[in-house]
Amino acid sequence: MKTNLLAFLLFGIIAGSAIGQTSPTITSWVINTNGATGFNCSGCSPAAYGTILANVESVYYSSSDAYITTDCVPVYNIGPYAGNAPTEQNKVYKMTLNPAQNTGTATSTDFGAIGVWSNGVTIYNARDGFYWNNGTSTLDHGSGTWNRNAYVGEYQTFDGCLGHGDPSGMYHHHVNPVCLYDTSATSQHSPIIGYAFDGYPIYGAFAYTNTDGSGAIKRMRSSYKLTTATTRTSGPAMSVYSAGYFIEDYTYTASYGDLDEHNGRYCITPEYPNGTYAYFVTTDNSGTPEYPYTVGTSYYGVVATGNTGPSGGAFTVPNTATQYDPTNNVVQEVKNVNSKITLYPNPAEDNILQFQITDNTQEMNVKIMDYQGRTLVNREFAAGSYGSTVKIPAPYLNTGIYFVLFEINGTKEIQKVVFE
Predict the structure, then answer these.
(1) Residue 155 phi, psi dihedral angles, 5° rounding
(2) How far is CA 304 from CA 193, 197, 203, 307, in A?
(3) I need a labelling partner for 58 at 20 to 30 A (CA). Which of 4, 214, 243, 324 fits?
(4) Cis peptide before 292 (omega within 30 of 0)
């Protein structure tokens, strides 16, 4: 029983006979299993008090596609906003289970949603919808030769999670969603944190050095260079709008960084041991978002119609589709096989994992994992360095059920914990 349970958690094996169930495109979503609501914001206009269902509400799949149902708000606190408060979106996005490279003209990542984060929040590209109108010498709404960089032009409207709402009430991120996952875990391969609309995964900023899955973990570097020019051709003066204010101030330079012009590469990852094309969010050494932030100015793969644009994400789940049950990723009953470790309190309080242990003479590794088997917290304790009561803060974990994997002297044990 214990061996099977570990396999389920660590490798995402799912009960059932459908081969599609093993696809990370199905299993990588943060699914709302307890009716949790999001967007608590008393200072917003109008005020909001957690009335919108948070995270991904359901995932269905067929032999070719996954269907992601979401209202596009996270469970963690966002806002407040002076305007453009998030509203219920009622989206159903369709993600292909068989993504393919676009061998023709690359599809541009246009305004609006270009993908979905794993918690159902939408991903926007680097532009914010304003451009320099050379005829009037002003910033106008639309697109032109010089398009404003959202991270620079709209940063003042971002909340602490680096997201904000648009005029339609769509909460979204142009850059790294820092509240979604543990961005401080720089010594391990980042998790899948979303999917672009061409069906390829988006990871956090850290990956194996080499595309064959070898080498140390390193930060993936963008291959876009910021201009060193002192003037812009038929554009705004650098003295008024400094370099980086417009996305055209950046130029893709092959091999300058680790990633291609789409901000990705073909490589082996933990979820794709045989390799996949994958995008990566890009940041600098301090964690500050770095252009192009998520997907570049165009997609790597073929983008099916129906997800993009103001009316995108309006799919109907086919009657023949199967609903994915995240609880089938693990054995329902998790037994405490080692009486030396006791989790308390459970549910955990204040997002702190706390447990008692009777023997601290051995090295100990503690991991907190979600239903998809993704490691969200990973702590190492040297022999004798911890007491009988151990506390591990996890302030970024959403409300829900998690699994704690203890490994001591080669012996592994899993216990269930609830964060409220």
Answers:
(1) -55, -35
(2) 21, 8, 21, 7
(3) 4
(4) yes
Query: Could you give the CA distance from residue 6 to residue 16 in angstroms, rounded to a whole number?
Result: 17
Convert the pLDDT of each residue in 248-270 to its tens digit: 999 999 999 999 999 999 999 99
Q: How far is it, in rounded angstroms, from Cα 367 to Cα 280?
A: 24
The Cα–Cα gap between 157 and 240 comes to: 21
Listed in sequence order, the residues at least 6 apart from 156 whose beta carbon sits closer than 8 Å to its beta carbon are none
**Nearest Cα to Cα of residue 264 among 144, 110, 121, 102:** 102
DSSP H or E stretch at residue 153: helix 150-153
Q: Mark the ranges of the chain whose per-residue pLDDT is less than 70.
A: 1-21, 40-48, 82-83, 327-339, 371-373
Handedness of CA 292, 293, 296, 300 (dihedral sign): positive
- Give how far Cα 277 sits from Cα of 199, 200, 209, 387, Å: 10, 6, 15, 45
Q: What is the pLDDT of residues 75-107, one digit of tens each?
A: 888 887 766 788 899 999 999 999 999 999 999
Its pTM stands at: 0.75
- Nearest CA to 18 out of 87, 67, 64, 72 is that of 64
- The mean of the pLDDT values for the chain is 86
The ranges assigned to domains in the chain are: 2-323, 334-419
Residues 309-327 pLDDT 10s: 888 999 999 999 998 887 6
Contact 162, 176 (CB under 8 A): yes
